[in-house]
From TrEMBL, chain A:
It comes from Bellilinea caldifistulae. It is found in: Endomembrane system; Membrane. GO terms for molecular function: NADH dehydrogenase (ubiquinone) activity; NADH dehydrogenase activity; ubiquinone binding. Keywords: Membrane, Oxidoreductase, Transmembrane, Transmembrane helix. Pfam families: Proton_antipo_M. Its main location: membrane. It is a multi-pass membrane protein. The keyword Oxidoreductase applies. This is NADH-quinone oxidoreductase subunit M.
TrEMBL record, chain B:
Its EC number is 7.1.1.-. Belongs to the complex I subunit 2 family. Keywords: Cell membrane, Membrane, NAD, Quinone, Translocase, Transmembrane, Transmembrane helix, Transport, Ubiquinone. InterPro entries: NADH-Q_OxRdtase_suN/2 (IPR010096), ND/Mrp_TM (IPR001750). One of its GO terms (biological process) is ATP synthesis coupled electron transport. The chain crosses the membrane at residues 12-34, 43-64, 84-101, 113-130, 136-155, 167-189, 209-234, 246-270, 276-298, 305-323, 329-353, 374-397, 409-430, 451-472. One of its GO terms (cellular component) is endomembrane system. The gene is nuoN. This is NADH-quinone oxidoreductase subunit N.
Length: 491, 488
């Protein structure tokens, strides 16, 4: 029997979280070391998976299955395909970065790192689950770490509001998805939550059309779909840096991924029926998010709304239901995850040193923290889809896919990218260049070595992917292929 | 009718005999052992709890019903898996409550308290296995009368006395209405045997209007026991005024007993009227969820909050009854097990905090995480389990009741349920916010926890986690209870 690496991947953070809670609160150094050790282990296992997945064979690999509650059709079934593997890698990168940038958390680090680990376990579990119940179990596991981490360690002025808003929005989404999920369970007549079996269930077309919106929309709320996106900026801004990184970088992908895996893969004909509506909402996401980002005066809100805009591209990719669009969506999930994690990390670094996020009162920081400035510019170039960076290779397939079904969408979405370029340049100029305000001149210092490691690592990933997109496309292609095969023709 | 005693008859009554003996032993022990009143309370609590465990062990060893069950004692008692599982639920709750009571200054000094607890549990056991309306009524009264006394046990505390009287008045009125329903049943059919009544209630035998009236009258009594709207008005005041361990017992065991009779009478006697009562119970469920959750939002006392939340939970559980299916019954039993450990833990912690800080305001929990990290975590587990978040017990329980309703196509009820779950999560998270975010108060009043209290809390925590992700044993039990009810 092969080593159950997916279980090891999911249970590493769970065990670490429990161990952390058992440590004495004063042992802050040990607490950080345990968290870091777990994060490194997760990252290593994610890389191990990346290198041992066989794209030639495609499909779900590293399968594990154990009985959980057979009477109710629940099993503990894990496996990853080309769509979920990049997201597992993304989670590994962001959890590792999140631990590093939170190194200096002084208020109850034990609870902080423990909850961070539970959040990590939740996202990894969703990506690896091949049982609908298991997927849901992990999905909801994220509720309390998210809420408590925002409320306890977040930005004091808005944390109670932002944390509750985020949690309730996501919980509403998940209960709507739950109703749809249960309908799928009973509708299949198979009495099983096994995703692979349900994929083959062949639901009647009326059933698919009725229940698709429940499942897809329920999960897509976590993906930030318009008009249910407003939790994202408020929540992300209120959250502490590491949680903003995880929420925007990984959690939003959890929502999108679940919408794809449960919504589109189980109810493909429902997806075909509703695709135009999703496409419309997602296009609004792209353009509207970008416009709102442009008028923000708070550095972190700019990034918060840019996530809404970029997740719109992922959803456009889904709605095309064709090879190019889905490939682009898969790439964009990874690329945006890395990019937004980097953005939020840098925003956090700036705020920790300057104690303000008002764009108007910042300036000239390139002289004080060059690493942060360069990292932000790289992230910005990714975000506006500059060739040579991962954003380009993710956005182009999305636009190509959209062109095939609705050329107008491509045109409008590309306009959204123009606006993105505008607000990114605006922020870069005002925050990192120009005159440095005198009060910041004294107080602001350079970022720490760990921060540099985070900036360097995340930037490198985005550049590598920009030059060698095949690093990921070789995985995503076979995954997309099997989804398109379910569809039996696009729109 | 065979008048000779058979071993089966004794086996069917073994736990109740045990409880009665235990109660008598406790009373005698309390009388003759006058030294050191402080120590005595501890002894009494431990004796009650361990005694119940022994009885549970004996019951599990000797009085497990075989097959689909049988009628004993001249058709008075139904000896089946459903009765067995519910007995285990009540006795677990009583054992845990006895341990929690040791932490309560006023309760632990009085031997009567533990005897009353045992007698009330005995009544619940009989409620779960009664197969005759006469015995059922007696069992309900045997359960309720000790509970009235227990709610008003703190005679120096006005709120406790008020709670006792209020509980008594509500209980007496609803019992009377229910008894009127029973008498109508007898008048119409000439029998009080639940299983024989099934034939009389088959469609066509009774005018539908009259059957509906009878069902409504009976529902008043049962609705009071489970604190469902609109029979819930007593709950907040009683939970707040009653000694906290008693409130925990009321909200778990007493509610579970109500559901036990509700399931048996409605699924068996009124089986043919299910189209009618399914709608009635669906409406009551929706009303309970809405009233419970929305009023809980405004509460400042944690005990009142838990009371309203308990009304809301009655609503969630009623979804399973309204579904009128095997999965629905199973969901009810599973939910009751999950709710038992969760709510007992919550009330246990509140009891301790009340002792320390001297108030039941939610703010008394401020900074609990900093004062005692493990206590904060325990409250986190309890609140999230109530909110239905994995990996805690409440998640799967909620999922099961919603699944039961989806299976029957009662989508409106599911939607009401899931949106209420969101509202519920809001106030549970607010409690967590107070625990984790707010600074702890300056003064610290020392009130060391007793071993008994810690044991009971650990047991509840183990239950919350195990029911939360190790589903198989509890599911099988719930399934066994379900098939015993659905034999007919």
């Amino acid at each position: 029997m092969q080593f159950p690496i997916l279980s090891a991947l999911i249970f590493t953070p769970i065990v670490a979280g429990v161990v952390l809670l058992a440590l004495p609160a004063e042992q802050k150094d040990w607490i950080r070391r345990v968290a870091l050790a777990a994060a490194v282990l997760i990252l290593l296992m994610a890389f191990k998976l990346y290198f041992s997945y066989d794209p030639g064979k495609g499909g779900y690999q590293f399968l594990e299955e154990a009985a959980w509650l057979p009477q109710f059709g629940i099993s503990y079934k894990l496996g990853i395909d080309g769509i979920s593997l990049p997201l597992v890698l993304l989670s590994g990168l962001v959890i590792f970065s999140g631990v590093l940038v939170s190194w200096n958390v002084e208020d109850r680090p034990r609870e902080f790192f423990s909850f961070l680990m539970f959040l990590g376990a939740s996202v990894l579990g969703v990506f690896c689950a091949l049982d609908l119940f298991l997927l849901f179990f992990f999905f909801e596991l994220a509720v309390f770490p998210k809420y408590l981490m925002i409320v306890v360690w977040g930005y004091p002025k808005t944390r109670e509001y932002g944390g509750m808003k985020l949690t309730l929005y996501l919980f509403i989404g998940s209960v709507i998805a739950l109703v749809g999920t249960l309908a799928v369970y009973f509708g299949s007549g198979l009495r099983t939550f096994d995703l692979l079996a349900l994929e083959q269930a062949g639901f009647p077309i009326e059933f698919q059309r009725l229940w698709f919106p429940f499942v897809f929309l329920g999960f897509a709320i976590l993906g930030g779909i318009f008009p249910f996106h407003s939790w994202a900026p408020d929540g992300h801004v209120a959250a502490p840096t590491a949680i903003s990184m995880l929420l925007a970088g990984v959690e939003m992908k959890v929502g999108a991924f679940a919408a794809l895996r449960v919504g589109i893969q189980l109810l493909p004909e429902g997806a075909q029926y509703w695709a135009p509506a999703i496409l419309l909402l997602a296009t609004i996401n792209v353009v509207y998010g970008a416009f709102i980002a442009m008028v923000q005066t708070d550095f972190k809100y700019v990034i918060g709304f840019s996530s809404v805009s970029h997740m719109g591209l992922v959803l456009i990719g889904f709605a095309t239901l064709n090879r190019d669009g889905l490939l682009g969506a898969g790439m964009q999930m990874f690329s945006h995850g890395v990019m937004t994690a980097l953005f939020f990390a840098i925003v956090g670094m700036v705020y920790d040193r300057a104690h303000t996020r008002e764009i108007g009162s910042l300036g000239g920081l390139v002289r004080k923290m060059p690493w942060a400035a360069v990292g932000f510019i790289i992230g910005g170039l990714v975000s506006m889809g500059m060739p040579g960076f991962s954003g380009f290779v993710s956005e182009i397939p999305v636009f190509m896919g959209a062109w095939q079904v609705a050329p107008l969408v491509s045109v409008v979405a590309i306009l959204g990218i123009l606006i993105t370029a505008a607000y990114i340049f605006l922020v870069v100029r005002r925050v990192f260049f120009g005159e440095i305000p005198p009060e910041l001149d004294q107080s602001v210092g350079d970022v720490s070595g760990k921060d540099k490691l985070v900036i360097g690592m995340l930037s490198l990933v985005m550049i590598l992917l920009g030059w060698f997109p095949s690093l990921l496309t070789r995985l995503i292609e076979p995954g997309v292929h099997s989804i398109v095969a379910l569809m039996g023709g696009g729109w | 009718m065979n008048s000779a005693f058979t071993p089966e008859m004794w086996r069917s009554l073994l736990p109740e005999i045990g409880l009665l003996i235990l109660a008598l032993v406790l009373l005698i022990f309390d009388l003759i052992w006058l030294k050191q009143p402080q120590q005595r309370g501890k002894w009494l609590g431990w004796m009650t709890s361990m005694g119940i465990l022994v009885i549970m062990g004996i019951a599990a060893g000797f009085s497990v019903p075989q097959g689909e069950g049988s009628l004993e004692w001249g058709g008075m008692l139904r000896f089946d898996e459903a009765g067995f599982v519910f007995r285990m639920i009540f006795m677990s709750a009583a054992a845990l409550t006895a341990l929690f009571a040791i932490q309560h200054e006023a309760l632990k000094k009085r031997g009567e308290f533990f005897a009353l607890l045992l007698i009330s549990t005995l009544g619940m056991n009989l409620m779960a296995s009664a197969a005759d309306l006469m015995l059922l009524f007696l069992a309900i009264e045997t359960t309720s009368i000790p509970l009235y006394v227990m709610a008003g046990f703190l005679t120096r505390d006005d709120r406790s006395v008020e709670a006792g009287i209020k509980y008594f008045l509500f209980g007496a009125i609803t019992s009377a209405v229910m008894l009127y329903g029973f008498s109508l049943i007898y008048g119409l059919t000439g029998t009080t045997q639940i299983y024989e009544l099934k034939a009389s209630f088959q469609s066509g035998n009774l005018p539908p209007g009259l059957a509906g009236l009878v069902i409504l009258l009976v529902l008043v009594g049962f609705g009071f026991k489970i604190s469902a709207a609109p029979f819930h008005f007593w709950a907040p005041d009683v939970y707040q005024g009653a000694p906290t361990p008693v409130a925990g017992f009321l909200s778990t065991a007493s509610k579970a007993a109500g559901f036990a009779v509700l399931l048996r009478v409605f699924q068996i006697t009124f089986a043919d009227q299910s189209a009618l009562w399914s709608v009635m119970i669906g409406l009551i469920a929706a009303a309970s969820m809405l009233i419970g959750n929305y009023l809980a939002l405004a509460q400042r006392s944690i005990k009142r909050l838990l009371a309203y939340s308990s009304i809301a939970h009655a609503g969630y559980i009623l979804i399973g009854v309204a579904a009128d299916s095997e999965l629905g019954t199973l969901a009810v039993v599973y939910y009751l097990m999950a709710y038992l450990v969760t709510n007992l833990a919550a009330f246990g912690i509140v009891n301790l905090i009340e002792n320390r800080v001297g108030t039941d305001e939610i703010n008394a929990l401020a900074g609990l995480n900093r004062r005692s990290a493990s206590l904060g975590l325990a409250m986190l587990a309890a609140m999230l389990s109530l909110g239905g978040i994995p990996p805690f017990a409440g998640f799967f329980a909620k999922l099961l009741v919603f699944a039961a309703a989806v299976e029957r196509g009662m989508i409106w009820l599911v939607l009401v349920g899931v949106f209420n779950a969101v509202v519920g999560l809001y106030y549970y998270l607010n409690v967590l916010k107070v625990i984790y975010l707010q600074p702890p108060p300056e003064e610290k009043i020392a009130a060391p926890t007793t071993t008994a209290w810690r044991v009971a809390l650990w047991a509840c925590m183990a239950g919350i986690l195990l029911i939360g992700f190790w589903f198989a044993p509890w599911y099988s039990w719930a399934q066994a209870a379900t098939s015993a009810i659905w034999v007919y």
